[in-house]
From TrEMBL:
The keyword Chloroplast does not apply. One of its GO terms (molecular function) is ATP binding. The lineage of its organism: Bacteria, Bacillati, Actinomycetota, Actinomycetes, Mycobacteriales. It comes from the Bacteria. This is ATP-binding cassette domain-containing protein. Signal peptide: none annotated. The keyword Nucleotide-binding applies.
Length: 290
């Protein structure tokens, strides 16, 4: 099998094989900040600038950087939840950049997303059974019995029981709701999952349980993860490859082990220096690059 790992920002997407689940190239997103009297954009800001990477089946690419770096925007662009200004997006070999709504709806059953805050991503007025089944209802083609069987099976797999089916989000803890969000993301048997800070809103005591669940599900289903996070200590245990973002641009991409051992960009070194040390005597400080 040809190695298609992105090893540097300038390399872009070197090649796309059957093992490539998600590939973006030259992805840019601009937002207008000023218009003239005719309504034409005369000033804009680039939230994402020329981002290129790929994620292979069964592997995790972590997208890291400080808040405001553009990570979540890239995650939403990758599934065309928001429209790119330029660039291309390929999901399982299909270019979805200009795909119509009907075809895009089908793609989103194969490429799904887990959002950061389960309280906001789940309908507060819907029972858990409906929240998990909703993607199947949107897609169509599932019988009522099939939907019920899938929901029950996934609920059990993520560590919840049938007694949670009739509950509402306000009746459950944050950790339980994030497990519901994971079940919902997997109910249509996707091959790609974009995880947007999936444990950031959770207590430290249950983060490891959710991360371990995500890793187990990846091994079982050969899932490709685009894992968005600002937590380098978390990324260290889950990522195969890492892409570092700063102010909307990728500044470094590499194999996870290589990046932690020998980071090339000063900004990457700053992120790594912020990881809590195992002992106070090992703490180091590097000023953030301008």
């Amino acid at each position: 099998m040809t190695d298609t790992t992105v090893t540097g920002v300038r390399d872009g997407v070197q090649s796309v094989t059957d093992e490539t689940a998600l590939a973006v190239s030259g992805l840019t997103k601009s937002y207008p900040v000023k218009r003239n009297l005719l309504g034409r954009v005369v000033q804009s800001v680039d939230a994402v600038q020329g981002v290129s990477f790929e994620v292979r089946r069964g592997e995790t690419l972590a997208l890291v950087g400080e808040s405001g770096a553009g990570k979540s925007t890239v995650g939403r662009l990758a599934l065309r939840l928001i429209e790119p200004t330029s660039g291309s997006i390929k999901v399982l070999g299909d270019d979805i950049t200009t795909m119509g709504a009907s075809d895009l709806r089908k793609v989103r059953t194969r490429a799904t997303m887990i959002f950061q805050d389960p309280y906001k991503s789940l309908n507060p007025r819907a029972q858990i059974r409906y929240s998990i089944a909703e993607p199947m209802l949107s897609q169509g083609g599932y019988s009522a019995s099939d939907r019920a069987e899938r929901v029950a099976r996934l609920l059990d797999r993520v560590g919840l029981t049938s007694e949670h089916l009739n509950r509402y989000p306000y009746e459950m803890s944050g950790g339980q709701l994030q497990r519901v969000a994971i079940a919902r993301a997997l109910v249509t048997d996707p091959e790609i999952v974009v995880c947007d800070e999936p444990v950031a809103a959770l207590d430290m005591s249950i983060r490891s349980h959710v991360v371990n669940l995500l890793r187990e599900l990846q091994e079982e289903r050969n899932l490709a993860y685009l894992f968005i996070s600002h937590d380098m200590s978390l990324v260290r245990v889950i990522a195969d490859h890492i892409a570092v973002m700063k102010r909307g641009e990728l500044v470094e991409c590499d194999d996870a082990a290589a990046l932690f051992t020998n980071p090339r960009h000063e900004y990457t070194r700053t992120l790594l220096s912020a990881i809590p040390a195992s002992h106070p005597s090992r703490r180091t400080f590097r000023p953030a690059p301008s």
